[in-house]
Amino acid sequence: MHLSLGLPQFFCVYKKALSLTLYFIYLRNKQHLISLILCVCVSAIFNSMSLVLGRIIGDVVDQFTPSVTMSVTYNSHNTVFSGHELKPNLITSKPHVEIGGLDMRSSYTIILTDPDAPSPSDPYLREHLHWMVTDIPGTTDATFGREIVSYEIPKPVIGIHRYVFLLFKQKARQSVRTPVSRDQFNTRVFSQENELGLPVAAVYFNAQRENAARRR
To answer: Residue span of the signal peptide, if any (predicted)?
Structure first.
C-alpha cells in the first residue's frame, strides 16, 4: 500500500512534528533551567552560611541579604569559594571579578580586606586593606572601574588569614573617597562615611604561609 500526501497534508504533519519536537526541547530545557536555579540557590545558601561560620558577619560587616552576583577568579581557573583555602602562590596576581546587577547605569565598589592582620590571635591592625575599585558599572567586571587602592598581594605571616571580597552598590558615580590608610581600615565606618550601606555580595578565602601549610 502506498501513502501519498498532498502539499497541505504534508505541511500539516510537518507542523505537528515540529510542534512536538519543540515541546520536548522546551521540557528538557525547563528541567535544565530548574536545575540551574536550584544550584544557584544552594550555592547562595552555602555562601551565606560560610560567611556566618567564618565570622565575616560580625568581624567585618553586619548581617545582609545578597542581591547581586559576584564571582572572583585568580589565574583564570582558581575560583574563590567562601571558606576554601588558596595557596599564596595562587594569589600573586590581581583577581578577575565579575559582577551582576540590573544594568550598566548602576555603580559598584569592590573592597578586599584582611581582618586578621597581622595575626588572627592579635589582629591589632584590623582591618588591612588590600584592594579597592570603585565606579564599576553593573553587569561588567572590575577592569571597567576606577582603582583607587592598588592590589597588594596577600602575604600571611602568622596563622590562617581570611581575605574578604565585599561588593557595595554606590548611590552615584565618583561618590567614594580614597581611604586614608590600608592599616586599621574599617569597612563599617568606610561604608557609613561614603553612604554605601550594607554589602550586596561577599565572598572570602583563607590563606596561610606556604611552609606552614606543609607542616600541618
So the answer is: none
The number of beta carbons lying within 10 Å of the beta carbon of residue 177 is 11
| Helix count and strand count (H, E) for the chain | 4, 8
Residue from 185, 173, 90, 74 nearest 133 by CA:
173
C-alpha cell at 4: 501519498
Single pTM value for the model? 0.79
Number of folded domains that form the chain = 1
Q: In 3-state terms, the chain is what percent helix, strand and coil (to 5)?
A: 30, 25, 45
CB–CB of 133/163 below 8 Å?
A: no
Q: What is the CATH number of the domain that holds 103?
A: 3.90.280.10
Residue 38 domain flag: no
What 3 state SS string does 60-101 have? CECCCCCCCCEEEEECCCEECCCCCECCHHHCCCCCEEEECC
Q: Domain span at residue 149?
A: 54-215
- Cα–Cα distance for residue pair 131/148, rounded to 1 Å: 8
pLDDT tens per residue, range 132-160: 999 999 999 999 999 999 999 999 999 99
38-58 pLDDT, tens digit each: 555 656 677 888 999 999 999
